[in-house]
Every structure is written in structure tokens, then in C-alpha cells.
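Input C-alpha cells:
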């Protein structure tokens, strides 16, 4: 696991018993059983109003938190700085990037090592005794979900907007650029799948966890963030390649991830004027945001981030935090970058609001973890991802999200295809049929 997130803790062997201490090490068999039981049985039977969040960074490892209520731990005062040491899940929707909510789990499962799994189960001091006992009991129940991956059988696909409406949006966007200072705008679309029978979001969640721990092809290059709510039986998940910020002490790293092409065409991408301009816009805006809050600002060379389904232009940036500046404050200055909003920021936001095109759910928002050992930013480590390649699973609808950066020379057909390819990443992760994946991205 990344050294950013290593923290010493007392470890005892064996599955937690009724009188177990705060931290217990689990065997691979215990981990397997816990991941089978957690998503479905614990939420459905024992704690229907609870929430599970999971964060898995590209390097290795997985953090799974269990919360007593949907908004457990949320407190506006926590946005500038946490009030006590510990690990917090950090989250914010696209529409409110400045309001980064921090959620401290009652129960935390930390998994590291792949394929050899080791894990620690932690109960927070605030976790009530009745919840600990009920949790242990639930973990010993026989799971109902089978070992095989969950299968979805959609019978209806609704694209929103459809291609004619999408084409009109692109034309209106290009017209807006001709008469204003707007230079780039990110337009998103959705694909809604209606299953033949009500889907089980908890079993979809379990399938995603299984695939993550199998070290699927892109797990070393993408984040996994998910929120499973027992109260309204919904699952939001993201398999995003984009880092917003990664910090360790005073050091921070971020990246400009903008410009894309189908796999195998990366060398052409490095010479493509439209995509190079798109990436440079993001780089300049990030540099501007970091200049006032960091020293030793460094912009690295342009490279390729190659995934199995797409390739991106990537420019890494790094710096040293100035005294009194926290990583969370930098996050609020950075997000949303032109990679997911547009440029200039004010004009892009105004256009999306006027056209009713703002992303919904947690799509294009933020998700990650903050670990703090005490006051001061030198005692904090933060890892936040931009929640792209995402979907919202409900019993009667699975909604996929995808977006693309629009410039004056953009063509509706190519942007439609690009957004479809991006949606295929989430669709493929939950095992949707190949013919359906093609329909999502098919050229009109």
C-alpha cells in the first residue's frame, strides 16, 4: 500500500470476538467472507439506514468504511480541518466543490496486498457497543449473494440527450465560444438502463469489490470510489483515472488529464493540435490555482496515460504547501478544473447552469480519504480523485455518465463516440452485455 497511508497500529490475530480490542487483523478467508456479507446482509437485514463507502487508490489497497447514517459525520466545521486524529472519507458533489464533507467511519476495514490479502478491522472509539456486537453477528451469517459475479439483464436503454439533441448542444456551445471569452466547455450525457427485473445494488457493489481485489487490468491506473446507501437502496461508483490532489506532509501532487483517443493511437494524440490545446488550458489553470498556495511549483513533461479502453494526455504538477495552507484548501481552489468544467471557470459554469447541463449525483465530484495525526497540515495526508467513469445503480435503473471537452473545432460525432467510450468503462465493470456497450457509443 502507498506509504502515504501507512499508520502504525496494534495488531492481534484472529477474527474479532465479543471482547476484541479496537484493531484486529483478518485472514484472507475472513476478508472474503466479510466482503460477501457486508454489502447485502448487513445493510438489508441489520442496518437498512446505514451507508458503506469504499476508496481504493491505484497503487494498492482498499478502505471500506461503515457509517451509522447516510450523513454520519458530516459537519460544515470539518471542511477546513478535522477536529480529531483519524481517517476520514472526503466527498463533494460537482455542484458544491467548496463543501467537502468529511465522514468518519464507525467501522473501518483496511485491505492491502494483492493478490496476497491482509486486512485490519478497526472499531472507532465512538462506535457504540450494540453496533459492534450486531456487526460481528452479521458477519457470521451465511451470505445470500452467490460467489459468481452479479448479472444484469437490461431490457431498455434510454440515451439522454439523444444524438440530435446532443448535436444541437455542441452547435450552441461552439456558437457561444464565437461571441464570448469561453474557450472550452465540458458537456456530459447519460445512458439509463432499465433491467428486466429489479437490480440489487448491494450485489453489484460486491461484484465490483471482487473485481478490484482480483487486480483487473486497469486497477493499477484507476481509482475506485463507491457509496452504497441502505436507506434508499442506491449505489454510486466511479472507476476514475484522474487524481485531483495527493499530499504527504507539505508535498502535493496533481495532474492535468485532458485530451483523449482510442487505445493504440497515443502517438497521434501527442501530435494532435486540438487535444494538445485542451491539455494546455488545464495545465495553465492549475498552475494559476497553485501559484498562491505553493512554493517550488513544478510542471512535468507531457505523457500518456494508457488504459485498456482509452488513452489520455497527462501533465503532472507538484509543489510544496505554503505555511498555513491545508491540502483541503488547495482542493477547493483546484476543483473543478477545466478538465471537467471548462475555461474560463465563471463563464463555463454560467453556460452549464443556463443550459441545465450541470452534472448530477456525484459524477465529476470528489471522493477520497484524509488521514490526520493531529493539528497542522504537516500531519495530514490526502488523496482525492475526480469521480469520472461513474454510474448510479438503483433497483429499477442504472445510469451511466460520460463527458467530453468541447472546443471551437469539436465535431458532434466524435464527441458522442468519446463520451460513449467513457461510459463503457463503468458499464463493462458491472458486466453489461457487449452488444449494449456498443449501442452506448455507436456512431449515429
Amino acid at each position: 500500500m502507498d506509504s502515504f497511508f501507512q499508520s502504525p497500529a496494534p495488531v492481534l490475530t484472529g477474527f474479532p470476538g465479543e471482547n476484541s480490542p479496537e484493531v484486529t487483523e483478518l485472514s484472507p478467508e475472513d476478508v472474503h467472507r466479510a466482503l460477501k456479507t457486508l454489502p447485502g446482509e448487513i445493510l438489508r437485514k441489520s442496518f437498512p439506514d446505514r451507508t458503506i463507502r469504499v476508496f481504493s487508490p491505484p497503487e494498492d489497497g482498499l478502505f471500506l468504511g461503515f457509517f451509522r447514517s447516510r450523513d454520519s459525520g458530516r459537519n460544515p466545521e470539518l471542511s477546513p480541518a478535522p477536529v480529531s486524529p483519524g481517517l476520514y472519507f472526503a466527498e463533494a458533489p460537482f455542484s458544491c466543490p467548496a463543501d467537502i464533507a468529511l465522514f468518519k467511519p464507525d467501522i473501518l476495514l483496511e485491505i492491502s496486498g494483492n493478490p496476497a490479502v491482509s486486512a485490519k478491522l478497526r472499531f472507532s472509539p465512538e462506535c457504540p457497543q450494540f453496533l459492534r456486537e450486531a456487526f460481528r453477528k452479521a458477519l457470521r451469517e451465511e451470505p445470500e449473494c452467490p460467489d459468481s459475479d452479479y448479472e444484469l439483464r437490461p431490457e431498455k436503454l434510454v440515451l439522454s440527450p439523444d444524438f440530435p439533441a446532443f448535436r444541437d448542444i455542441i452547435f450552441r456551445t461552439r456558437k457561444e465560444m464565437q461571441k464570448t471569452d469561453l474557450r472550452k466547455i465540458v458537456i456530459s450525457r447519460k445512458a439509463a438502463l432499465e433491467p428486466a427485473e429489479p437490480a440489487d445494488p448491494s450485489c453489484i457493489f460486491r461484484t465490483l469489490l471482487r473485481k478490484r481485489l482480483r487486480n483487473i487490468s486497469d486497477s493499477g491506473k484507476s481509482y475506485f470510489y463507491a457509496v452504497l446507501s441502505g436507506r434508499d437502496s442506491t449505489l454510486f461508483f466511479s472507476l476514475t483515472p484522474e487524481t485531483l490532489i495527493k499530499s504527504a506532509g507539505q508535498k502535493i501532487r496533481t495532474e492535468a488529464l485532458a485530451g483523449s483517443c482510442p487505445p493504440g493511437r497515443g502517438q497521434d494524440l501527442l501530435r494532435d493540435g486540438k487535444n494538445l490545446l485542451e491539455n494546455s488550458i488545464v495545465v495553465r489553470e492549475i498552475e494559476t490555482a497553485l501559484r498562491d498556495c505553493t512554493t517550488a511549483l513544478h510542471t512535468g513533461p507531457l505523457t500518456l496515460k494508457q488504459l485498456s479502453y482509452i488513452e489520455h494526455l497527462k501533465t503532472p504538477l507538484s509543489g510544496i504547501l505554503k505555511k498555513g495552507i491545508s491540502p483541503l484548501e488547495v482542493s477547493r481552489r483546484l476543483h473543478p478544473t477545466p478538465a471537467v468544467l471548462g475555461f474560463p471557470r465563471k463563464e463555463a459554469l454560467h453556460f452549464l447552469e443556463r443550459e441545465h447541463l450541470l452534472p448530477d449525483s456525484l459524477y465529476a465530484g470528489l471522493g477520497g480519504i484524509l488521514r490526520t495525526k493531529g493539528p497542522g497540515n504537516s500531519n495530514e495526508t490526502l488523496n482525492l480523485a475526480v469521480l469520472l467513469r461513474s454510474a448510479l445503480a438503483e433497483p429499477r435503473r442504472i445510469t451511466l455518465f460520460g463527458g467530453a471537452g468541447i472546443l471551437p473545432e469539436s465535431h458532434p460525432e466524435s464527441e458522442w463516440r468519446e463520451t460513449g467510450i467513457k461510459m463503457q468503462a463503468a458499464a463493462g465493470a458491472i458486466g453489461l452485455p457487449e452488444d449494449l456497450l456498443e449501442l452506448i457509443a455507436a456512431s449515429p
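Residues 336 and 427 are 25 Å apart (CA to CA). Residues 1-21, 70-80 have pLDDT under 50 and may be disordered.
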